[in-house]
Amino acid sequence: MHKQDMTIGVLARQAGVNLETIRYYQRRGLLPEPAKPLGGIRRYSANDITRIQFIKRAQHLGFSLEEVGALLRLEDGAHCSEARAIAVEKLAEVRKRLAGLRGIEHTLEKLANQCATQKGNVCCPLIASLLEN
Amino acid sequence: MHKQDMTIGVLARQAGVNLETIRYYQRRGLLPEPAKPLGGIRRYSANDITRIQFIKRAQHLGFSLEEVGALLRLEDGAHCSEARAIAVEKLAEVRKRLAGLRGIEHTLEKLANQCATQKGNVCCPLIASLLEN
DNA sequence: CTTGACTCCGTACTATGGTACGGAATTGAT
DNA sequence: ATCAATTCCGTACCATAGTACGGAGTCAAG
């Protein structure tokens, strides 16, 4: 059983995902559904493990499943500039999110510090900042 | 009509949210539903604008509606240490997300650069990195 | 040749934060 | 008094990324 000719349950374990996730990826068109041998049980190969892990790695880089689909259509490695364009766009998005989160970080830090140094707590600075302006 | 005694539609416009969002917040228990004058139409006050804006500001700081609910229960400003605890926890979350996003940023940047300098594009580095390891 | 484990397939449900719809009632303005 | 606009209320739907369920079929071991 050298990672070849598995059933869906084995594939799920090998790829480290829930069995239902595989079905979901098939429905989304991210993973091919092997032909079923006439009322029998579908068989999967090591290629499917690779593909699932591709999806998971791309997700960890912040790509949505729709975007992963676009990347998978370039999977032959012969469309480098298209792939690059997708990555560059995602990079811009990631940087925008980073900027937003940094702002949030500073605001929260400031408010938490104010709450900490506040003694009489007539009015909590955090609550006050949410109430005002 | 000095921001007092509005109908829900006016409240929505004043607060800058969709009318249905107000109903949704009421269902979620984030916003009180005023008593209805016997088969009539509910009336809202400036307090409700404040409360909706509180919710929106807290969301922009990264709080979920459930967390906003917790903050609203401390709204009197007399529970500064509880509010601070919530903020500190959220700050830790935000920092974790920041670290993750920074890693993604670096990886995407590296891959996009490799794609850019790649000439023969035998195999796109981005695709390759998603396929391997 | 039966039993238990697994697969197939469709559908429904989860969480999150809303948005949309439709019929009935009510309100404001003319 | 009438008419358009608005409100009320329940329910259904959107996106995203899955997870769960249940009945029927199939497969392998004992």
Please, could you describe this protein's structure?
2 copies of one chain form a homodimer. Chain A is mainly alpha-helical and 133 residues long. Chain A has 2 domains: 1-73, Multidrug-efflux Transporter Regulator, Chain: A, Domain 2, CATH 1.10.1660; 84-133. Helices cover 64% and strands 0% of the residues of chain A. The first copy, chain A, has helices at 8-15, 19-27, 46-60, 65-72, 80-117, 125-131. Chains A and B meet through helix 3, helix 5 and helix 6 of A and helix 3, helix 5 and helix 6 of B. Chain A binds a DNA duplex (30 and 30 nucleotides) through helix 2.
In terms of topology, how is this protein built?
Two copies of one chain form a homodimer.
Chain A: H1 8-15, H2 19-27, H3 46-60, H4 65-72, H5 80-117, H6 125-131
Helix pairs in contact in A: 1-3, 3-4
Chain A binds a DNA duplex (30 and 30 nucleotides) through residues 7-9, 18-21, 23-24, 28, 36, 39-42, 59, 64-66.
